[in-house]
Amino acid sequence: MIEFQMPNLGADMEAGTLIEWKKKPGDTVQRGDIIAEVETQKGLIEIEVFDEGTIGELLIQEGTKVPVGTIMALIHPSAAAMETKKGKATSEKPIALQPIEEKTTVLSIKASPLARRIAAENHLDLSQVKGTGENGVITKDDVDLALTTQKEQLPKVEKFPPDDAKTLAQIEAVRTAIAAAMSKSNREIPHYYLEKKLDMAKATDWLIAKNKEKSVQERLLPVVLLIKATARALTDFPELNAVWQNGLQLKNEIHIGFVVSLRNGGIIVPAIHNANIKSLDEIMAALNDIIPRARALKLRSSELSDATITVTNIGDGGADMIFGVIYPPQVAIIGFGNISEQPFAEKGMLGIRTSIFVTLAGDHRATDGLTGSRFLVALNNHLQNPEAL
Amino acid sequence: MNEEEIKQIVFQLLKKIAPDTEPSTLKPDENIRETLNIDSFDSLQFIVALNEKTGIEIPEEDYGKIATLQALTAYIKNKKP
Protein backbone atom coordinates (compact mmCIF):
# COMPACT_ATOMS: atom_id res chain seq x y z
CA MET A 1 0.00 0.00 0.00
CA ILE A 2 1.37 3.40 -0.94
CA GLU A 3 0.85 6.21 1.51
CA PHE A 4 -0.01 9.49 -0.15
CA GLN A 5 1.14 12.34 2.09
CA MET A 6 0.61 16.08 2.25
CA PRO A 7 3.58 17.15 0.14
CA ASN A 8 6.17 19.68 1.15
CA LEU A 9 6.00 22.44 -1.44
CA GLY A 10 8.98 24.40 -0.20
CA ALA A 11 11.13 25.03 2.84
CA ASP A 12 8.54 27.48 4.09
CA MET A 13 5.53 25.16 4.07
CA GLU A 14 4.32 23.59 7.30
CA ALA A 15 0.74 22.64 6.46
CA GLY A 16 -1.92 22.75 3.78
CA THR A 17 -5.71 22.68 3.68
CA LEU A 18 -7.33 19.97 1.58
CA ILE A 19 -9.96 21.77 -0.48
CA GLU A 20 -11.09 19.03 -2.82
CA TRP A 21 -10.32 15.44 -3.70
CA LYS A 22 -10.06 15.03 -7.47
CA LYS A 23 -10.12 11.22 -7.24
CA LYS A 24 -12.34 8.79 -5.36
CA PRO A 25 -11.73 5.28 -3.99
CA GLY A 26 -11.49 2.81 -6.87
CA ASP A 27 -10.14 5.34 -9.38
CA THR A 28 -6.91 4.37 -11.09
CA VAL A 29 -4.14 6.95 -11.03
CA GLN A 30 -0.96 7.41 -12.99
CA ARG A 31 2.14 9.37 -12.18
CA GLY A 32 1.37 13.06 -12.71
CA ASP A 33 -2.40 12.79 -12.24
CA ILE A 34 -3.99 15.48 -10.10
CA ILE A 35 -5.31 13.81 -6.96
CA ALA A 36 -6.35 16.84 -4.91
CA GLU A 37 -6.41 20.59 -4.60
CA VAL A 38 -4.71 22.02 -1.55
CA GLU A 39 -4.75 25.59 -0.30
CA THR A 40 -1.29 26.78 0.74
CA GLN A 41 0.40 30.10 1.31
CA LYS A 42 1.20 30.01 -2.39
CA GLY A 43 -2.40 29.69 -3.51
CA LEU A 44 -4.62 26.82 -4.55
CA ILE A 45 -2.22 24.09 -5.66
CA GLU A 46 -3.05 21.04 -7.76
CA ILE A 47 -1.38 18.07 -6.10
CA GLU A 48 0.02 15.35 -8.34
CA VAL A 49 0.58 11.69 -7.50
CA PHE A 50 3.93 10.06 -8.07
CA ASP A 51 2.79 6.45 -8.12
CA GLU A 52 0.60 4.25 -10.28
CA GLY A 53 -2.26 2.37 -8.75
CA THR A 54 -5.82 2.43 -7.53
CA ILE A 55 -7.10 4.79 -4.87
CA GLY A 56 -7.83 2.77 -1.74
CA GLU A 57 -9.03 5.06 0.97
CA LEU A 58 -9.22 8.83 1.36
CA LEU A 59 -8.22 9.50 4.96
CA ILE A 60 -8.60 13.26 5.16
CA GLN A 61 -11.85 15.10 4.68
CA GLU A 62 -12.17 18.16 2.54
CA GLY A 63 -11.76 21.35 4.52
CA THR A 64 -9.12 19.91 6.88
CA LYS A 65 -5.76 21.55 7.45
CA VAL A 66 -2.99 19.02 8.04
CA PRO A 67 0.79 19.27 8.53
CA VAL A 68 3.25 18.35 5.78
CA GLY A 69 3.85 14.59 5.78
CA THR A 70 0.38 13.63 7.02
CA ILE A 71 -0.93 10.51 5.28
CA MET A 72 -3.91 11.71 3.26
CA ALA A 73 -4.82 8.65 1.19
CA LEU A 74 -3.86 5.06 0.60
CA ILE A 75 -3.14 3.88 -2.93
CA HIS A 76 -3.01 0.21 -3.99
CA PRO A 77 0.07 0.05 -6.20
CA SER A 78 -0.26 -1.36 -9.71
CA ALA A 79 1.74 -4.49 -10.56
CA ALA A 80 4.36 -2.43 -12.41
CA ALA A 81 4.72 -0.06 -9.51
CA MET A 82 5.18 -3.00 -7.12
CA GLU A 83 8.15 -4.21 -9.16
CA THR A 84 10.00 -0.92 -8.90
CA LYS A 85 9.18 -0.53 -5.23
CA LYS A 86 10.59 -3.98 -4.37
CA GLY A 87 13.72 -3.95 -2.33
CA LYS A 88 13.31 -0.35 -1.26
CA ALA A 89 13.63 0.10 2.47
CA THR A 90 10.39 1.10 4.12
CA SER A 91 11.87 2.17 7.40
CA GLU A 92 10.38 5.66 7.22
CA LYS A 93 8.51 6.46 10.37
CA PRO A 94 4.79 6.85 9.86
CA ILE A 95 3.70 10.37 10.57
CA ALA A 96 0.96 10.98 13.08
CA LEU A 97 -2.33 11.75 11.47
CA GLN A 98 -3.27 14.83 13.33
CA PRO A 99 -5.11 17.81 12.00
CA ILE A 100 -3.46 20.92 13.39
CA GLU A 101 -6.63 22.95 13.53
CA GLU A 102 -9.91 22.16 15.17
CA LYS A 103 -12.06 21.34 12.19
CA THR A 104 -14.68 19.18 13.85
CA THR A 105 -17.49 21.60 13.13
CA VAL A 106 -16.55 21.81 9.48
CA LEU A 107 -16.26 18.06 9.14
CA SER A 108 -19.76 17.40 10.41
CA ILE A 109 -21.20 19.82 7.88
CA LYS A 110 -22.43 18.35 4.64
CA ALA A 111 -21.47 20.49 1.69
CA SER A 112 -20.57 19.96 -1.95
CA PRO A 113 -16.86 20.25 -2.80
CA LEU A 114 -17.55 23.36 -4.90
CA ALA A 115 -19.49 24.97 -2.06
CA ARG A 116 -16.61 24.19 0.32
CA ARG A 117 -14.09 25.68 -2.03
CA ILE A 118 -16.03 28.91 -2.58
CA ALA A 119 -16.60 29.18 1.18
CA ALA A 120 -12.90 28.60 1.90
CA GLU A 121 -11.84 31.17 -0.69
CA ASN A 122 -14.16 33.73 0.84
CA HIS A 123 -13.42 32.78 4.45
CA LEU A 124 -17.06 31.93 5.00
CA ASP A 125 -17.95 29.81 8.04
CA LEU A 126 -20.03 26.93 6.65
CA SER A 127 -21.60 26.23 10.04
CA GLN A 128 -23.51 29.49 9.59
CA VAL A 129 -24.94 28.44 6.22
CA LYS A 130 -28.27 26.66 5.79
CA GLY A 131 -28.15 23.80 3.28
CA THR A 132 -31.02 23.41 0.83
CA GLY A 133 -29.64 20.43 -1.10
CA GLU A 134 -30.55 16.77 -0.59
CA ASN A 135 -30.39 15.84 3.13
CA GLY A 136 -29.52 19.42 3.94
CA VAL A 137 -26.29 19.43 1.95
CA ILE A 138 -24.94 22.95 1.42
CA THR A 139 -24.78 23.74 -2.28
CA LYS A 140 -22.97 26.39 -4.27
CA ASP A 141 -26.21 28.42 -4.42
CA ASP A 142 -26.46 28.37 -0.60
CA VAL A 143 -22.90 29.66 -0.30
CA ASP A 144 -23.49 32.32 -2.97
CA LEU A 145 -26.62 33.45 -1.11
CA ALA A 146 -24.78 33.54 2.22
CA LEU A 147 -21.97 35.57 0.68
CA THR A 148 -24.43 38.04 -0.87
CA THR A 149 -26.23 38.43 2.45
CA GLN A 150 -22.91 38.84 4.22
CA LYS A 151 -21.90 41.56 1.76
CA GLU A 152 -25.18 43.39 2.26
CA GLN A 153 -24.76 43.27 6.02
CA LEU A 154 -21.29 44.72 5.90
CA PRO A 155 -20.98 48.44 6.57
CA LYS A 156 -21.28 50.39 3.33
CA VAL A 157 -17.99 52.23 3.80
CA GLU A 158 -15.44 49.46 3.49
CA LYS A 159 -11.74 50.02 3.50
CA PHE A 160 -11.33 47.28 0.89
CA PRO A 161 -13.97 45.52 -1.18
CA PRO A 162 -14.11 41.71 -0.54
CA ASP A 163 -12.01 40.90 -3.62
CA ASP A 164 -9.25 43.14 -2.37
CA ALA A 165 -9.52 41.61 1.08
CA LYS A 166 -8.87 38.19 -0.45
CA THR A 167 -5.96 39.55 -2.46
CA LEU A 168 -4.55 41.17 0.68
CA ALA A 169 -4.76 37.87 2.54
CA GLN A 170 -2.94 36.15 -0.30
CA ILE A 171 -0.25 38.83 -0.43
CA GLU A 172 0.22 38.42 3.30
CA ALA A 173 0.45 34.62 2.99
CA VAL A 174 3.02 34.85 0.20
CA ARG A 175 4.98 37.41 2.25
CA THR A 176 4.99 35.08 5.25
CA ALA A 177 6.23 32.20 3.09
CA ILE A 178 9.04 34.30 1.63
CA ALA A 179 9.99 35.56 5.10
CA ALA A 180 10.22 32.02 6.46
CA ALA A 181 12.28 30.64 3.57
CA MET A 182 14.65 33.59 3.29
CA SER A 183 15.24 33.80 7.06
CA LYS A 184 16.05 30.10 7.10
CA SER A 185 18.41 30.63 4.18
CA ASN A 186 20.30 33.49 5.78
CA ARG A 187 20.40 31.67 9.10
CA GLU A 188 21.69 28.36 7.77
CA ILE A 189 23.39 28.87 4.41
CA PRO A 190 26.87 30.44 4.26
CA HIS A 191 26.55 32.29 0.96
CA TYR A 192 29.45 33.26 -1.31
CA TYR A 193 28.92 35.65 -4.22
CA LEU A 194 30.44 35.95 -7.68
CA GLU A 195 29.76 38.36 -10.49
CA LYS A 196 30.67 38.39 -14.18
CA LYS A 197 29.95 40.81 -17.02
CA LEU A 198 28.88 38.96 -20.17
CA ASP A 199 28.92 40.23 -23.73
CA MET A 200 25.36 39.77 -24.99
CA ALA A 201 25.89 41.22 -28.49
CA LYS A 202 25.94 37.86 -30.29
CA ALA A 203 23.04 36.45 -28.31
CA THR A 204 20.78 39.48 -28.80
CA ASP A 205 21.66 39.84 -32.51
CA TRP A 206 20.91 36.17 -33.03
CA LEU A 207 17.63 36.51 -31.16
CA ILE A 208 16.52 39.57 -33.14
CA ALA A 209 17.18 37.71 -36.41
CA LYS A 210 15.40 34.60 -35.13
CA ASN A 211 12.36 36.56 -33.96
CA LYS A 212 12.04 38.20 -37.38
CA GLU A 213 11.34 34.75 -38.81
CA LYS A 214 8.70 34.04 -36.19
CA SER A 215 5.09 35.13 -35.79
CA VAL A 216 4.24 37.45 -32.88
CA GLN A 217 2.90 34.46 -30.95
CA GLU A 218 6.16 32.53 -31.32
CA ARG A 219 8.56 35.33 -30.38
CA LEU A 220 11.22 34.51 -27.80
CA LEU A 221 12.27 36.70 -24.91
CA PRO A 222 16.01 37.08 -24.11
CA VAL A 223 15.46 35.34 -20.77
CA VAL A 224 14.83 32.09 -22.66
CA LEU A 225 18.47 32.15 -23.83
CA LEU A 226 19.61 32.87 -20.27
CA ILE A 227 17.62 29.95 -18.86
CA LYS A 228 18.84 27.54 -21.51
CA ALA A 229 22.48 28.62 -21.19
CA THR A 230 22.23 28.21 -17.41
CA ALA A 231 20.75 24.73 -17.76
CA ARG A 232 23.40 23.71 -20.30
CA ALA A 233 26.24 25.00 -18.12
CA LEU A 234 24.82 23.13 -15.13
CA THR A 235 25.29 19.78 -16.90
CA ASP A 236 29.02 20.27 -16.34
CA PHE A 237 28.63 21.45 -12.74
CA PRO A 238 26.25 18.99 -11.08
CA GLU A 239 27.32 20.11 -7.60
CA LEU A 240 25.44 23.38 -8.19
CA ASN A 241 22.31 21.52 -9.31
CA ALA A 242 21.72 19.92 -5.97
CA VAL A 243 20.19 20.20 -2.53
CA TRP A 244 21.81 20.29 0.90
CA GLN A 245 19.98 17.76 3.08
CA ASN A 246 22.27 15.91 5.46
CA GLY A 247 25.08 16.68 3.07
CA LEU A 248 25.16 17.40 -0.63
CA GLN A 249 22.71 15.46 -2.76
CA LEU A 250 23.13 15.88 -6.50
CA LYS A 251 20.02 15.97 -8.66
CA ASN A 252 19.95 14.05 -11.92
CA GLU A 253 17.46 16.31 -13.64
CA ILE A 254 17.82 20.05 -14.12
CA HIS A 255 14.65 21.85 -13.05
CA ILE A 256 15.14 25.60 -13.12
CA GLY A 257 13.12 27.51 -10.51
CA PHE A 258 12.20 30.75 -12.23
CA VAL A 259 11.38 33.75 -10.05
CA VAL A 260 8.04 35.30 -11.02
CA SER A 261 7.10 38.62 -9.43
CA LEU A 262 3.49 38.94 -8.40
CA ARG A 263 1.80 42.15 -9.44
CA ASN A 264 0.77 43.00 -5.89
CA GLY A 265 4.14 42.22 -4.36
CA GLY A 266 5.86 38.98 -3.47
CA ILE A 267 7.37 36.27 -5.64
CA ILE A 268 6.59 32.69 -6.62
CA VAL A 269 9.23 30.34 -8.00
CA PRO A 270 7.74 27.66 -10.27
CA ALA A 271 10.04 25.08 -11.86
CA ILE A 272 10.76 24.74 -15.58
CA HIS A 273 11.28 21.00 -15.76
CA ASN A 274 14.28 19.51 -17.60
CA ALA A 275 15.30 22.89 -18.99
CA ASN A 276 18.59 21.48 -20.33
CA ILE A 277 16.78 19.21 -22.81
CA LYS A 278 14.02 21.63 -23.75
CA SER A 279 14.37 23.64 -26.96
CA LEU A 280 14.24 27.44 -26.76
CA ASP A 281 10.67 27.33 -28.12
CA GLU A 282 9.72 24.80 -25.46
CA ILE A 283 11.19 26.98 -22.71
CA MET A 284 9.21 29.97 -24.04
CA ALA A 285 6.07 27.80 -24.09
CA ALA A 286 6.79 26.78 -20.49
CA LEU A 287 7.06 30.46 -19.49
CA ASN A 288 3.82 31.29 -21.32
CA ASP A 289 2.19 28.53 -19.32
CA ILE A 290 3.61 29.03 -15.84
CA ILE A 291 3.96 32.82 -15.50
CA PRO A 292 0.22 33.58 -15.78
CA ARG A 293 -0.60 30.60 -13.52
CA ALA A 294 2.04 31.64 -10.99
CA ARG A 295 0.58 35.17 -10.93
CA ALA A 296 -2.88 33.69 -10.41
CA LEU A 297 -1.42 31.45 -7.64
CA LYS A 298 -2.58 28.34 -9.50
CA LEU A 299 0.35 25.98 -9.81
CA ARG A 300 0.86 22.23 -9.59
CA SER A 301 2.70 20.61 -6.70
CA SER A 302 5.61 19.47 -8.88
CA GLU A 303 6.11 23.01 -10.14
CA LEU A 304 6.49 24.27 -6.58
CA SER A 305 8.64 21.50 -5.17
CA ASP A 306 10.87 20.20 -7.97
CA ALA A 307 13.27 23.09 -8.64
CA THR A 308 16.93 22.12 -8.28
CA ILE A 309 18.34 25.65 -8.66
CA THR A 310 16.86 29.14 -8.99
CA VAL A 311 17.22 31.75 -11.72
CA THR A 312 16.14 35.32 -11.07
CA ASN A 313 15.99 37.84 -13.87
CA ILE A 314 15.56 41.57 -13.33
CA GLY A 315 14.45 42.27 -16.88
CA ASP A 316 14.89 45.33 -19.04
CA GLY A 317 14.99 48.75 -17.52
CA GLY A 318 15.75 47.47 -14.02
CA ALA A 319 18.81 47.11 -11.78
CA ASP A 320 22.11 46.05 -13.34
CA MET A 321 22.86 43.35 -10.80
CA ILE A 322 21.02 41.15 -8.36
CA PHE A 323 22.63 39.14 -5.58
CA GLY A 324 20.20 36.39 -4.69
CA VAL A 325 19.36 34.59 -1.49
CA ILE A 326 19.43 30.82 -1.97
CA TYR A 327 16.09 29.02 -1.65
CA PRO A 328 16.75 26.13 0.73
CA PRO A 329 17.50 23.27 0.36
CA GLN A 330 18.95 24.34 -3.00
CA VAL A 331 22.62 25.30 -3.07
CA ALA A 332 22.78 28.09 -5.67
CA ILE A 333 20.88 30.97 -7.24
CA ILE A 334 21.81 32.69 -10.51
CA GLY A 335 20.88 36.36 -10.94
CA PHE A 336 20.65 38.21 -14.25
CA GLY A 337 20.48 42.00 -14.31
CA ASN A 338 19.08 44.34 -16.91
CA ILE A 339 20.54 43.89 -20.42
CA SER A 340 22.24 47.22 -21.12
CA GLU A 341 24.99 48.86 -23.13
CA GLN A 342 28.27 48.85 -21.22
CA PRO A 343 31.85 49.86 -21.95
CA PHE A 344 33.61 46.63 -22.86
CA ALA A 345 37.37 46.18 -23.10
CA GLU A 346 38.67 43.33 -25.24
CA LYS A 347 42.09 42.69 -26.81
CA GLY A 348 43.31 46.16 -25.91
CA MET A 349 40.27 47.85 -27.47
CA LEU A 350 37.46 49.64 -25.72
CA GLY A 351 33.99 49.49 -27.21
CA ILE A 352 30.34 49.63 -26.25
CA ARG A 353 28.57 46.29 -26.08
CA THR A 354 25.17 44.98 -25.18
CA SER A 355 25.99 43.33 -21.87
CA ILE A 356 24.51 41.64 -18.86
CA PHE A 357 25.82 41.18 -15.34
CA VAL A 358 25.31 37.68 -14.04
CA THR A 359 25.81 36.75 -10.41
CA LEU A 360 25.98 33.49 -8.59
CA ALA A 361 25.25 33.03 -4.91
CA GLY A 362 26.52 29.63 -3.83
CA ASP A 363 26.20 27.59 -0.65
CA HIS A 364 29.75 27.40 0.70
CA ARG A 365 28.97 24.12 2.46
CA ALA A 366 28.36 22.57 -0.95
CA THR A 367 30.79 24.28 -3.31
CA ASP A 368 33.64 26.76 -3.38
CA GLY A 369 34.10 29.95 -5.34
CA LEU A 370 36.26 28.20 -7.93
CA THR A 371 33.39 25.93 -8.95
CA GLY A 372 31.05 28.90 -9.16
CA SER A 373 33.57 30.86 -11.19
CA ARG A 374 34.05 28.01 -13.67
CA PHE A 375 30.31 27.70 -13.97
CA LEU A 376 29.95 31.38 -14.90
CA VAL A 377 32.68 31.00 -17.53
CA ALA A 378 30.82 28.00 -18.98
CA LEU A 379 27.55 29.96 -18.94
CA ASN A 380 29.27 32.75 -20.87
CA ASN A 381 30.62 30.27 -23.44
CA HIS A 382 27.11 28.97 -24.10
CA LEU A 383 25.76 32.50 -24.58
CA GLN A 384 28.51 33.22 -27.12
CA ASN A 385 27.13 30.35 -29.23
CA PRO A 386 23.40 31.08 -29.22
CA GLU A 387 22.75 29.02 -32.34
CA ALA A 388 23.84 25.91 -30.43
CA LEU A 389 21.44 26.52 -27.53
CA MET B 1 -10.41 52.83 -36.48
CA ASN B 2 -10.76 56.19 -34.83
CA GLU B 3 -8.66 57.29 -31.90
CA GLU B 4 -11.36 56.58 -29.34
CA GLU B 5 -11.88 53.01 -30.60
CA ILE B 6 -8.13 52.39 -30.52
CA LYS B 7 -7.89 53.69 -26.96
CA GLN B 8 -10.74 51.49 -25.80
CA ILE B 9 -9.04 48.39 -27.24
CA VAL B 10 -5.68 49.38 -25.72
CA PHE B 11 -7.24 50.01 -22.29
CA GLN B 12 -9.13 46.72 -22.42
CA LEU B 13 -6.01 44.71 -23.30
CA LEU B 14 -3.84 46.51 -20.76
CA LYS B 15 -6.43 45.94 -18.05
CA LYS B 16 -6.34 42.22 -18.79
CA ILE B 17 -2.56 42.16 -18.37
CA ALA B 18 -2.39 44.52 -15.39
CA PRO B 19 -5.76 44.02 -13.68
CA ASP B 20 -4.75 45.99 -10.60
CA THR B 21 -4.18 49.18 -12.61
CA GLU B 22 -6.47 51.70 -14.29
CA PRO B 23 -5.08 52.11 -17.83
CA SER B 24 -7.71 54.75 -18.71
CA THR B 25 -5.98 57.18 -16.32
CA LEU B 26 -2.76 57.02 -18.38
CA LYS B 27 -1.59 60.44 -19.51
CA PRO B 28 -0.82 60.67 -23.26
CA ASP B 29 2.93 61.08 -22.77
CA GLU B 30 3.45 58.70 -19.86
CA ASN B 31 5.58 55.61 -20.41
CA ILE B 32 2.99 52.82 -20.38
CA ARG B 33 5.28 50.08 -19.09
CA GLU B 34 6.77 52.17 -16.30
CA THR B 35 3.45 53.63 -15.17
CA LEU B 36 1.55 50.34 -15.16
CA ASN B 37 4.56 48.31 -14.01
CA ILE B 38 4.53 45.95 -16.99
CA ASP B 39 7.53 43.67 -17.48
CA SER B 40 8.88 42.31 -20.76
CA PHE B 41 6.78 39.15 -20.51
CA ASP B 42 3.54 41.11 -20.04
CA SER B 43 4.61 43.55 -22.73
CA LEU B 44 4.91 40.67 -25.21
CA GLN B 45 1.53 39.33 -24.07
CA PHE B 46 0.05 42.74 -24.88
CA ILE B 47 1.61 42.79 -28.35
CA VAL B 48 0.30 39.26 -29.01
CA ALA B 49 -3.19 40.22 -27.77
CA LEU B 50 -3.17 43.38 -29.90
CA ASN B 51 -2.20 41.27 -32.90
CA GLU B 52 -5.04 38.83 -32.26
CA LYS B 53 -7.54 41.65 -31.78
CA THR B 54 -6.54 43.94 -34.64
CA GLY B 55 -4.29 41.91 -36.92
CA ILE B 56 -1.48 44.44 -36.47
CA GLU B 57 1.94 42.83 -36.18
CA ILE B 58 4.38 45.09 -34.36
CA PRO B 59 7.96 44.13 -35.24
CA GLU B 60 10.53 44.15 -32.44
CA GLU B 61 12.39 47.12 -33.92
CA ASP B 62 9.22 49.21 -33.49
CA TYR B 63 8.90 48.54 -29.75
CA GLY B 64 10.51 51.93 -29.11
CA LYS B 65 7.74 53.62 -31.12
CA ILE B 66 4.91 52.48 -28.87
CA ALA B 67 6.16 53.49 -25.44
CA THR B 68 3.45 56.05 -24.64
CA LEU B 69 -0.31 56.03 -25.15
CA GLN B 70 -0.04 58.87 -27.65
CA ALA B 71 2.67 57.08 -29.64
CA LEU B 72 0.89 53.72 -29.52
CA THR B 73 -2.43 55.21 -30.65
CA ALA B 74 -0.72 57.02 -33.52
CA TYR B 75 1.13 53.83 -34.48
CA ILE B 76 -2.06 51.75 -34.59
CA LYS B 77 -3.95 54.50 -36.44
CA ASN B 78 -1.21 54.58 -39.03
CA LYS B 79 -1.45 50.81 -39.55
CA LYS B 80 -5.27 50.74 -39.46
CA PRO B 81 -6.42 54.08 -40.81
UniProtKB/TrEMBL annotation, chain A:
Domain of life assignment: Bacteria
Keyword Transmembrane helix: no
Domain Lipoyl-binding: 1-76
GO cellular component term of the entry, any: cytoplasm
Enzyme nomenclature, EC number: 2.3.1.-
Signal sequence coordinates: none
Single Gene Ontology MF annotation: lipoic acid binding
Cofactor(s) the record lists: (R)-lipoate
UniProt xrefs under PANTHER family: DIHYDROLIPOAMIDE ACETYLTRANSFERASE COMPONENT OF PYRUVATE DEHYDROGENASE COMPLEX, LIPOAMIDE ACYLTRANSFERASE COMPONENT OF BRANCHED-CHAIN ALPHA-KETO ACID DEHYDROGENASE COMPLEX, MITOCHONDRIAL
Similarity comment: family membership: Belongs to the 2-oxoacid dehydrogenase family.
Name of the protein in question: Dihydrolipoamide acetyltransferase component of pyruvate dehydrogenase complex
Organism this protein belongs to: Flavobacterium sinopsychrotolerans
From TrEMBL, chain B:
Pfam families tied to this protein: PP-binding
InterPro entries listed in its UniProt record: ACP, ACP-like_sf, PP-bd_ACP
GO biological process: lipid A biosynthetic process
Key words of the record: Phosphopantetheine, Phosphoprotein
Annotated GO CC locations: cytosol; membrane
Domain Carrier residues, every copy: 4-80
Source superkingdom: Bacteria
PANTHER family attached to this UniProt entry: ACYL CARRIER PROTEIN, CARRIER DOMAIN-CONTAINING PROTEIN
Protein name stated in the entry: Acyl carrier protein
Taxonomic source organism: Flavobacterium sinopsychrotolerans
